[in-house]
Design brief:
single chain; about 450 residues; mainly beta; Thrombin, subunit H; four-stranded antiparallel β-sheet; 2 helices; 32 strands; about 40% strand
Length: about 450
């Protein structure tokens, strides 16, 4: 009887443990929204005969990364209307008929469990498809499409629960590259980058969709995801738009502080996720470069910032969209033309650079996704290669590389994969504009 009670007690602890689904990747940048993969049992290098693909499923176009939660994979894509085509010039904007879809796949075999589709004519530049990663939380999945359609669905059945239309409700136009700020769940709130006068950021009730508060004004909302960090002893919602970076009370939307950009970030390109290290906040953009703020009060102070507003004549880090990795006092990230660089966090001094993890050579917007795993880093290059590397202030050391997906998106004038992968269940889940794959990264038994 004692043994039985003990087993029941242990089982109860396991079921109640928040780490039960620690292998999930339920939102942008993973469980803790920090770009760190914490699973064990992962291989040290790729086998010579390639990785084992568990499944692959055809999908439509999109920059939306997958989310993985409780045995399901969620993804957004776009379907062109019959006879419709995207402009030959990816920068061009026109009215392109089609629809957006939310897909739910079985994690074990990729089987389609349900899909939700709605009409959605595109007016954006780079019209491949949706930009944001679905956010899965407490039995619901939240998606934000390129044209501002915010949808809440039942995660199990795909039943629509509520929706909001940003353009209609907030009187705004679609940003040049679409709505791209990954929604953030915080307590009872779903916090979204929206846009408009007084509504650059809006918090909705995550269960009903009711607006709870709105804050900030700017000509453009930018594209950077809202993030919550602790600074100066209080939780702060960090909202970075092209005119300023701001610290807000996530419960009320009250503005704690604002640090203005002078000049404003060009073309609204506040894109990379703001990163926190201690009381420091690091921001980087394509033209304006970097700024490192010390946020130890409601009056942030500049530690250092780029002096050059340029895409070629750069200082610091001029990343277009990559989320930088900051570790042990150093920054690692692609810069404006694919130069994967190491900088000193304290000063912005560059220590080394290489094109190996991005496009292999100088290319405008050369890109790679960087995920920390233990003492090494997984890098998914725009060429569709998966790389294991060791990053240090001394050098970039590539440990292993394998092709994963074909780069089929040609929007930047060359074939690329610009969709952030997910890492869960000892696997990587990655997509291009034609398919999503699930590939095992687990150590093979006996190895």
């Amino acid at each position: 009887m004692f043994l039985l009670r003990h087993l029941v007690f242990v089982l109860g602890l396991l079921l109640a443990s928040p780490s039960l689904h620690a292998a999930d990747w339920p939102q942008w940048l993973g469980p803790q929204r920090d770009g760190v993969w914490r699973e064990s049992g992962i291989l040290e290098k790729f086998p010579a005969n390639g990785l084992k693909c568990r499944w692959r499923v055809p999908v439509g176009g999109g920059y939306s990364g997958p989310a993985v939660a409780q045995g399901r994979v969620y993804l957004m894509d776009r379907q062109l209307a019959k006879g419709a085509t995207n402009p030959a010039n990816a920068f061009a904007r026109s009215q392109i008929p089609g629809s957006e879809r939310v897909l739910c796949l079985n994690e074990a075999d990729g089987k389609l469990l349900w899909q939700h589709e709605y009409e959605c004519a595109y007016t954006v530049s780079y019209a491949a498809g949706p930009r944001t990663t679905p956010t899965v939380h407490a039995g619901k999945v939240y998606t934000l499409g390129s044209e501002g359609n915010l949808v809440c669905l039942d995660a199990e059945k795909g039943t629509p629960l509520w929706s909001r239309d940003f353009k209609k409700e907030f009187g705004i136009k679609t940003p040049l590259w679409g709505f791209a700020g990954h929604p953030l769940v915080d307590g009872q709130k779903l916090i979204c980058l929206t846009g408009g006068d007084g509504s650059v950021v809006v918090a909705f009730d995550k269960d009903s969709g009711k607006e709870l508060w709105r804050a900030l004004s700017a000509k453009e909302p930018g594209y950077a995801p809202p993030m919550i960090y602790e600074f100066a002893g209080k939780r702060q919602l960090i909202l970075w738009h092209p005119e300023s970076v701001n610290g807000l009370d996530p419960e009320t939307g009250k503005v704690f502080w604002t640090y203005p950009h002078t000049p404003a970030v060009r073309f609204g390109m506040t894109i990379p996720t703001p990163r926190k290290v201690g009381d420091l906040l690091f921001l980087t953009s394509f033209y304006n470069g970097s700024v490192l703020l010390r946020v130890d009060s409601d009056k942030p102070a500049v530690v250092w910032q780029s002096q050059k507003v340029s895409e070629k004549d750069t200082d610091g880090l001029h990343s277009v969209m990559a989320t930088p990795l900051i570790e042990n006092g150093h920054i690692y990230s692609p810069c404006s033309y694919g130069q994967f660089r190491c900088l000193k966090l304290a000063t912005g001094e560059r220590l080394w650079e290489t094109f190996a993890p991005t496009s292999g050579k100088s290319e405008r917007w050369g890109h790679a996704f960087v995920i920390k795993h233990g003492e090494r880093t997984f890098i998914f290059s725009e060429k569709g290669d998966l790389i294991i590397a060791k990053l240090s202030p001394e050098k970039y050391e590539e440990l292993s590389r394998t092709p994963l997906l074909a780069p089929v998106n040609r929007d930047p004038g060359r074939p690329v994969v610009w969709s952030h992968p997910a890492f869960a269940n000892q696997c990587i889940y990655a997509r291009n504009d034609k398919e999503i794959v699930c590939v095992s990264l687990a150590v093979e038994p006996g190895l």
